[in-house]
Specification:
The protein is globular, with a radius of gyration of 18 Å. Strands 1-4-5-6-10-9-8-7 form an 8-stranded antiparallel β-sheet, with helices on both faces. A two-stranded antiparallel sheet has the order 2-3. It has helices spanning 2-20, 92-104, 164-180, and strands at residues 23-25, 30-32, 39-41, 47-49, 55-59, 66-73, 113-122, 125-135, 141-151, 154-163. It has 188 residues and is an alpha+beta fold.
């Protein structure tokens, strides 16, 4: 009986905490980054995690299926695990290596395999596009697309990951459209 009460209490607490996350359906596609530092047009009908304070994070079917996020981080802010920083003068390949090293320092991405790294236009500048794959602890394969560039005010990174089977190819065009919509002023 005591374990049943504990289980009920845990279930109620978990339900309450899950409800605390603020999910907002994207009906107006223009989303603002922290402090209105930048704007992107997210896919209509996706859902935004409003409490995400480091940037913009959206999903269509749930974060375990796919997620897309945008972050603009000051160069002097260290990456949490590798303790490295970026600079405005970094080459796109150097920034890509820095981000991959940080990802691989995370246990969930320890088996990250980089499939390709190519030059790409990001925010109108020469940046990089990286495609990678990782398997979670259950063996589910996720594909990852990263776009990044070193801007004068920080490292701008667009990150998309989705279950490799079906979801990655289906939602990659929507993510890339969101990436191309990046701007520093709200559209009139």
């Amino acid at each position: 009986m005591k374990s049943l009460k504990s289980w009920i209490l845990i279930t109620v607490a978990a339900s309450f905490l899950a409800g605390c996350a603020v999910w907002t359906r994207v009906d107006n596609p223009t989303l603002a980054g922290p402090g209105d530092a930048y704007f992107v047009d997210a896919p209509v009908g996706w859902v935004q995690l409003s409490l995400y304070s480091d940037g913009i994070r959206v999903t269509r079917d749930g974060f375990q299926i796919q997620l897309a996020d945008v972050t603009l981080t000051p160069h002097d802010k260290q990456l949490p695990l590798t303790k490295k920083t970026s600079s405005a003068s970094m080459l796109p390949t150097e920034l890509a290596e820095l981000i991959v090293a940080e990802m691989r320092s995370t246990p969930a991405f320890a088996n990250l395999t980089v499939k390709e790294t190519t030059p790409a236009q990001v925010a109108g500048l020469n940046g990089f596009r990286l495609i990678a794959q990782v398997r979670n602890e259950r063996g589910v394969a996720y594909s990852i697309a990263l776009y990044g560039v070193a801007l004068p005010k920080g490292r701008l990174v667009f990150h998309f990951q989705a279950i490799d089977r079906f979801f990655f190819q289906r939602d990659l065009p929507a993510f890339e459209q969101m990436m191309r919509s990046y701007r520093t002023r709200r559209a009139a």
